[in-house]
Specification:
mainly alpha; 2 strands
Length: about 525
Amino acid sequence: MLTLLAVLPIAAILVLMVAVRWSAAAAGGTAAVGAMALALTAFGFGGPDFPFGPVQGVVGVLARAAWVALTVMLIIGPALGIHHLQQRTGATKALEAGLARITPDPRVAALLIVWFFCLLIEGAAGFGTPVALAAPFLVAAGFRPVTAVVAAMVGHASAVPFAAVGTPTLAQLAIVDDAPRELSWAVAPYMALTGLVLAFVVARLVGTLLPTAGPPWRWMAVAYLAFFVPNLLVARFVGPELPSLVGAIGGAVVFVLAVRWAVRRRPPPPPAEVAAEDAVTDAAVAEHPPRMSFLAATAPYLVLVVLVLVTRLIVPVRDAARSVVWQWELFGHFSESIEPLYHPGLLLALAFLAGAVWQRAALADMGAAFRRATLQVVPVFVALVAMVTVAFTMSESGMTTQLAVAAAGAGVLWPVLSPFVGALGTFMTGSATASNILFTEFQDQTALAADLDPVPLLGAQGAGAAIGNIICPHNVVAAAATVGLGGREGQVLRQALPVAAVCLVLIGAMAWVLVGV
């Protein structure tokens, strides 16, 4: 009975957003009220078994939810500011022109953003940063808003187990005694398998740019191999910190070289066609003269990548950045913290300022970009607080654990269900790292109790947690906010759910084979 009650808040979110088409704020608010009512009654939240009273419990959960929502806002706000400044200064047009010089096919250029750029930023920074940066740019490049968000969310998922320089997998290593390379190799093959599905979806979405040409299947295959070959090698022989970064950077270099080689091998067009294209180009330049170089147009992104790599890979800088911690505690139980000098929000803000200086943006343009970004993120705060309240209520009251324990009762079917537990953790917390912290020991002990090899199941946990990023409600809310989809988040979730479901089934099937039940 408790299991059925525990699943109600999740079911409410999915039904209200996907079927009834409510906004995330309305669906999340309804689910939050329902979850809190269930927690206080059926699960005795704040009763004798808890170190705080019911009123303290409600206040503590709401305080944590507001804090987490605010930390997400610190990412979305500067990312939106960069997008709006890029548009006001003409940098977006310069970027499009630069990508066109790499390849005349906009679908292939889009793969650089949807696949490699998202994977790079996820591998370096995590915390939803790639979607917040990529989705607005994809809209400016011609994608429909829903397509842009889904593409960015699907495109970055392959890097999640090794995001933020390996943080989700390192969180698992802090809980179990396995060797780093053993655990990184446990999760990497799952992501290579699901990467086939993610790459297929990315190609389909990118194909909407030129519907008559169709998806760029061959170039997507090149992009898939260019990322996953180094990714798998680093995961197998080095460890969990660098697979996503090396795969994204090395893969992007290989991909661009392959594209340039293919462009040079193309037969030259007929002279009449060249003259016609030159005339169109000359007219376009005369009407919209380029305002800046490609290098200047990429300034905010280049600065962001450099800042992220320096603060993540150079140990003394990283230690210094992480030495400053702001934290708070309520009622001796509820607490949250932030490392302000290490948080992506500060790095995005610095990238915004550096880009403005490099591009010599007017103060009026900077102010307008800041105001527009602020006006966009304020309404999103309510939806995020609602969704995070559901997550924390379920976690603090024991609902999430109840669902996981019920799944563990499947016995020999557990390998099939283990990735779904990982996805559940991310769905509720918005973080693959949090999911791994929440459920790694549970997965390990469940495997040992069932006399199963725990390592493949720990890998399935990490892979399932990564896929959960695609459908996590407050990730969807944050991503939709960057392209003006507030109130239409259900459209994103409807497209993302089938992708996540297929990936989780594949991970479960692979876990079943690896465990050898």
